[in-house]
Amino acid sequence: MRPLRRLLWGLGVLALAIGAFWLWVFWPLGGQRAEPRGPRGGAELPTAAEMAPPLVAAPALCVGSQPGPPGAAAANAASLSTLAWSPFGKAEIGWEIYAPRIAAEIGTSCAAGSDGFAAALARWQAANRLAPTGVMDAAAFAVMLPRWHLARPFVRVNREGTCPGAPSGPDLATARADESYGGKTIQLRPAALEAYRRMTAEARAAGVLRRPEALKIYSGFRAPDVDAQRCARDQNCQGLTRTICSAHRTGLAVDLFIDAAPGFGPDSSADANRLAMARSPLYRWMVWNAGRFGFVNYVYEPWHWEWTGEPLLPGTPIASLPQAGAGSVTEPAEGSTPQTPAAASGARSRR
Ligand SMILES: [Zn+2]
What we know:
alpha+beta, 2 domains, 11 helices, 7% strand, disordered C terminus, binds zinc ion, carboxypeptidase activity, DD-CPase-like, hydrolase, carboxypeptidase, VanY-like_core_dom
């Protein structure tokens, strides 16, 4: 009878393991289900402790051994290029632009339409009190986006109604000619430039700088008064942000050449252009690795990164700054805290 007893013992352990797994998956949904937090729900923003930690190192290879919820992978594969939604207040189709960041958020290197991705998303949804469908949707994005915004010290300070101070000339370092895009003079706070150099060296070693312009800087420190003049001259103030309080005034923000679709410049926010960047090995590498060097990204703009290694300079109340040009809001731009309801989670104070 010993083999039979062993078999029964084995089956018992297996049943316990399966039971524990489903308990783990569905436990947060027991009883009352919390509403998804996020700007759309009008619920509270995550606290600093709940913010996304810096993304560290490369993901493990996708093994795809865990099946996702039935049908989820196919649904994601389709919606990746067809989902009609407005994640930043303007209509967009598909979510592939944000797929690299979403994959990092849910901790998978599996492709967005794969079973492994759906399984990872279902686990993330369960952990965040969402229905663990494994299907990417606006509700999941609405939980992710405030975290990404709040990973940026600039946004956190803005939320308090403060615009950080701008460094003066002697407190800025100038990038080398070979680090600048198009021969522009680029200035940054010295430690930010050093961090940029360390990151660039590692990206080069990783083999992700496929184009000669890759990671060259096309915008760094921008003096507040110069931004205001540019706004008036171009009749393009890119919303409140460039006019009143751009992240580029800190000397910690950089616009980097990531990639560009044919016919577009490296800073065009056309969806086709942002998609080209999202598909580049460089952006995918950045999403996973830039955090190790202290850089965080504004996800709407794959090119805009802010260095977090030093505190922002003491600021002034946003309300006290000149408000000229504030009416010309077109779309979220230039490392801004977007003004739209969907994405304004990081910028309530700006209203
Ligand atoms: Zn920028």
